[in-house]
Amino acid sequence: MGIISIIADKVLDILDAVVDEKSARMSKINGRGLEVRGIWGTKELFIYGSPVTPEILDEHNISRTMNEFHWGDDSEGSEMAAFAILLWFLEKDEALVRKDIFFRDFVMRFPKEDFEILYNFVGWNNRITPGKYRKLVSTIDQAPGNDDD
To answer: Quick check: is 95 in a domain?
Structure first.
């Protein structure tokens, strides 16, 4: 096995881990909703207890001029928070498509204080997605008692 094959295998392993992690996160959000917690004093954001930092934008080669999030307004820090939240569980191209609407519908409305909110992301996403495109399916959208069990 040559050096190029070894490097290619390592790169594929890393990509698989990243894709699997985002898949697992999206699956959690599909099943439970999107749980976001913010700490106003430190401008920290968490999704299901996992910290979301501005560095996630750096990882996706997205330029930024601020080092902390904001929310509850239409500032650059709030827009940055919207993009970072979406990048936590979506690929960059999907996050980019939804960023402006997510910013307007959610992050601008977060209270300017500590908060913890659970959103039905799938229901929201399906409302903003034109009918001709693939829509997401969530177990929280199904009426209770309609299981096949």
So the answer is: yes
How many independent structural domains does the chain possess?
Answer: 1
pLDDT tens profile 67-105: 899 999 999 999 999 999 999 999 999 999 999 999 999
The residue among 62, 88, 59, 65 whose CA lies nearest residue 77 is 65
Determine, yes or no, domain membership for 96. yes
The DSSP symbol for 129 reads S
Q: What DSSP line would sit under 40-55, residue for residue?
A: TTTTEEEETTEEE-TH
β-bridge partners, 35: 118
- Would 102 be classed as within a structural domain? yes
Domain that holds residue 74: 26-113
User: How many Å from the N-terminal Cα to the C-terminal Cα in the chain?
Assistant: 50
Grouping H, G, I as helix, E, B as strand and the rest as coil, residue 38 is strand
Query: Is the residue at 33 inside a domain?
Result: yes
Which has the closest alpha carbon to 41: 80, 76, 15, 70? 70
What is the per-residue pLDDT across 20-70, written as a single tens digit (0 to 9) for each? 788 888 888 888 899 999 999 999 999 999 999 999 999 999 988 888 999
C-alpha 103: how far from chain center: 12
